[in-house]
Amino acid sequence: MSVTERLGLSRLLLVKQNFPDRGIADIPGEVQRQLHASPVAARLKPGSRVAIGAGSRGIANIAIIVRAVADYFKAHGHHPFIFPAMGSHGAATAAGQADVLAHYGIHEAAMGCPVLSQLDVVNCGPTPEGIETCMDRLAYESDGVFLVGRVKWHTEFLGRIESGLFKMMAIGLGKFAGTQRYHTHAYKLGLEHVIRSIGRQILSTGKILGGLAILEDAYHHTAQLTPVAVEEMEQREEELLALVRSWMGKIPVPALDILIVDEIGKEISGAGMDHKIVNRGGKGQYNPWPDTPTIERIFVRDLSELTYNNAIGLGMADAVTDRLVNRVDWVPTRINALTASAPAALRIPMHFPSDRECLEALWPTVGRFRPEEVTLGWIRNTLELSPLVLSENLLPRIKENPQLEVMGSAWEMEFDGAGNLVGVFGV
């Protein structure tokens, strides 16, 4: 008897989601066109030293975009350098944060300008609520700071401003010294309130030149590059978030019994996997997001390569493999979870030697009497939702959605000799 017959789970279908493709063909050219139409360089005296802040998320084409921004300032006679706008990432060390950028292709040889990483900060005064703010010392001592960041929904809260340039001004520019303090205040005040208040205080220093807001479509393509002037940053970020939220990809069925996730990681989401894709709360709550498919169980197979064994988000899973647990570097994982006041994010789920054993343990817990009734979804990670795998018993739902296209025939779930799934996404 084969492993698949013994499990008896439904056959699988590879399904393409036909999202609008908004990808920009000439990204460096678009950066130059947008920035040359903006007033940002005119704010600087000739020969100014410009600090370009870059973060740690897995932003598509980030090295290309940051290089184009550096080239723009150099073309205007200025002297740019790049710094990591990060809080606890890279294990909250200067070398670790430089390494994160280097793995994205952001290093001096590729950028044509220095990449400078350190953790010292300058105090920037209190907010009206008494939150002491701070900024990366090298950035503060420059003639102006320009932020390059992606505007998107935040994984853990709902607001009119979530992840973007304002959050980078708070959590990123504050480095590790500010990040833990800010999250502590957010525990009672709410993260959006804290982000806005700190952002306004940082803007009041006069050090921020503006930013380049990156918007990505549902395929994770660079879809829009928008210079944001410092005077309108808060309002423009609200508008950009509303726009990009309308492009958001989702799992395209109303409910799943089991979601298989090949990899979680910091470059995929600050939470390891996007709460609003897998429908989990920051404290492990099941299905808190009303407009997101209900997902009963989550099985995570491994960590991504670019997470550097930071396993933040582990606690959202119901089962993981031993190989994932054995890869975890608990130092950056603990730092990340404690800094974010999110200890639930690193709780260790039940774990088994193989993928097969994880699925065998999970399927009887979803309220189904027969394994062939269990509905399955399978994604590479929460950034990449097309193509995805859905179980054949969801075919009626798939046919109802004109945006979905079944690619090929159904196949039986396959395992290798070690009992691990034969992957379909190249992981």
Describe it.
- The strands form three sheets. Strands 12-11-10-9-13-14-1-15 form an eight-stranded mixed beta sheet.
- The model is unreliable at 1-5 (pLDDT under 50).
- The protein folds into two domains: 3-19 and 249-411, no CATH class; 27-245, LarA, N-terminal domain (Rossmann fold).
- It is α/β, with parallel strands linked by helices and 427 residues long.
- The longest helix is centred in the middle third of the chain and has 15 residues, at 175-189.
- It has helices at residues 3-7, 27-36, 62-75, 94-103, 108-111, 137-140, 165-172, 175-189, 191-203, 233-245, 275-278, 322-327, 330-339, 355-362, 395-400, and strands at 12-17, 49-54, 79-84, 121-126, 132-136, 144-150, 208-216, 222-229, 255-264, 294-303, 319-321, 350-352, 376-379, 388-391, 404-411.
Summing up helix and strand content along with how strands pair, one would put the structural category as: alpha/beta
Within CATH, the superfamily of the largest domain carries the name LarA, N-terminal domain
User: For this entry, what is the oligomeric state of its chains?
Assistant: single chain
Q: Unreliable runs, pLDDT <50, ≥5 residues?
A: 1-5
CATH topology of the largest domain: Rossmann fold
Strand order of the largest sheet: 12-11-10-9-13-14-1-15
Biggest sheet features: 8 strands, mixed
> Helix tally?
15
List the domain count as a whole number.
2
Order of helices and strands: HEHEHEHHEEHEHHHEEHEHEEHHEHEEHE
CATH architecture of the largest domain: 3-Layer(aba) Sandwich
Q: Give me the Rg, rounded.
A: 22 Å
List how many beta strands DSSP finds. 15
Give average pLDDT, whole number.
93
Distance between the termini: 27 Å
Q: Which geometry do the CA atoms define? A: globular
Helix content: 25-40%
